[in-house]
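Technical note accompanying the year-one report. For the benefit of new consortium partners, we illustrate the data format agreed upon in the data management plan: each record pairs a sequence with a structure-token string. No post-processing was applied to the example shown here.
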Amino acid sequence: MRNTLFKASFIVGTTMLAMCYSTTTLAVKLYKWVDDEGNISYQDTAPPAGRKYEEKSFSDEGARTGDTNAEVARSRAIQENPVVLYAANNCDSCDLVSRILESNYIPYDTIEVDTDSSAQQELIELIGSIRVPTLTIGDEVLNGSNRAMIENALTRNGYPKVQAGSQ
């Protein structure tokens, strides 16, 4: 009797867990806009009022049904491993990293360390010094602007490679 009760409880619990997972969908909405200085920004929050923007929604629906596609992988990577670029004004290497991220359609936040003392302190705590460009992809920290290094790190963190002519 006790063993039968355990089996019944296990079956009911497993079924409920499966039902909860099957109805949960991870969705991400990204906004892309250009600021007054011509910088492209990708954010998960809407731009300031009156700003023109593009909106794109990503969902993990394909992952739940067993489909594998770049949009699902990108959605997961964005949620699990956000990208942050620590940069400075008039930094050619920082601009290069921005272009690498944008050419791979990677949403990222930029933290300008040359104008923000709290950002400088944050970078010192992260890497022990102020060095730009510094890029974080999830928990991974990269210094420099080497395209292969950045693209490999993006791949390790779940961002799919962009195929020529895609998007």
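Partners are asked to follow this layout when depositing records. Confidence is low (pLDDT under 50) at residues 1-25.
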